[in-house]
């Protein structure tokens, strides 16, 4: 099902024309209304009367997180406050939260791209959706909510957390869809199993997961644990919120469509800011094409991914690969760059481990060290008759030492770094409490 077939299947040439017209308009609009952009464009020698559109996009420089901070709270707004229908904040995962605003038209478009995304995820009018994204200043809850209503779903606005109630509602209301962060969907899958609730006591078919990086390791756990097909939804407050990009339920694993008619994406080199070749990894940069309250030109998201026009696609829009992590989450260990999602990826190929892990970087003397903690599976705990797992139990069981060695070797082979592997018992690592979960700790500045 296509929510907006004419847009979703628009021939690329026509899409480019539409983007070009919208971009020129957006540039003229911010030049007139937002002093930040006027000063910036004056300094860069860009003027709306001569700006040629997409061909000159890179002339516009970048907008960065610091620009939001410097203009806190409303300095980047392009409309007078009475025309702002709603305010949201980014969740502030990295530093001070940024404020974003929407006109009534922005909110309509927000709902439209979310509705489009949910349809791509396999949701159909008439289905029930349990929305376990946090409601409030975070764009996730309300963003999904209005898009779901627009598509014609019955929304259950439970918000994040409260696992007992979540599981109860899944059984009582029989929703076909759950929306959550991937780390919270893991918790729901795990708890369902732990409490012995059989899969046929619930009716889920689809899980729409986003707001943090995740890999196929989690997809597999959630899909089996909840009996769903799990797809990726991506977005960020500065640009809109969830619904900037969405993975197709029938094209899982091949990337997520970016809704290019509203959000123009680029990938640039994280050090030079220069555009990279199609398919190469780099920093994702977005330009809004239709925003009224807070248009943002060339926003440096800090998210690392790649863009490509995939062979297998039912829509014309570009796809982005999974977010590998944020540029500022990337650990540089003894000169080697790596993201925690690479560790997550490796877990999938290993037996007897759970999909829970944590990465801690520290410094001993002048040496960087990384410790990866991973939980062994519940099943293996049972087989070895262990309640908890300690260093001694690892020494006592040869199979645990083998597992530890195999994991360390896979890390070394795949990432190119030696890391200390610590095995933990099932349930010993922190779980999501309903929102985003941090899986990396960098303690090197403490040394
Ligand atoms: P914050 O940056 O404070 O977390 P937001 O709530 O706006 O604020 O979150 C947007 C960010 O969340 C993105 O820039 C990205 O880093 C992350 N994110 C959102 N969706 C996904 C996704 N599907 N996969 C990976 N990361 C995601
Ligand atoms: K953000």
Automatic annotation (TrEMBL):
UniProt-listed InterPro entries: AMP-bd_C_sf, AMP-dep_Lig_C, AMP-dep_synth/lig_dom, ANL_N_sf, PA_CoA_ligase
Record key words, sorted: Ligase, Nucleotide-binding
Record has Nucleotide-binding as a keyword: yes
Pfam families the record matches: AMP-binding, AMP-binding_C_2
The protein's name: Phenylacetate-coenzyme A ligase
Catalysed conversion reaction: 2-phenylacetate + ATP + CoA = phenylacetyl-CoA + AMP + diphosphate
UniProt keyword Nucleotidyltransferase present: no
Job description of the protein: Catalyzes the activation of phenylacetic acid (PA) to phenylacetyl-CoA (PA-CoA).
EC number: 6.2.1.30
Family: Belongs to the phenylacetyl-CoA ligase family.
Enzyme class: ligase
Domain AMP-dependent ligase C-terminal span(s) in chain numbering: 335-444
Gene3D superfamilies: 3.30.300.30, N-terminal domain of ligase-like
Organism domain of life: Bacteria
Native organism: Hymenobacter lucidus
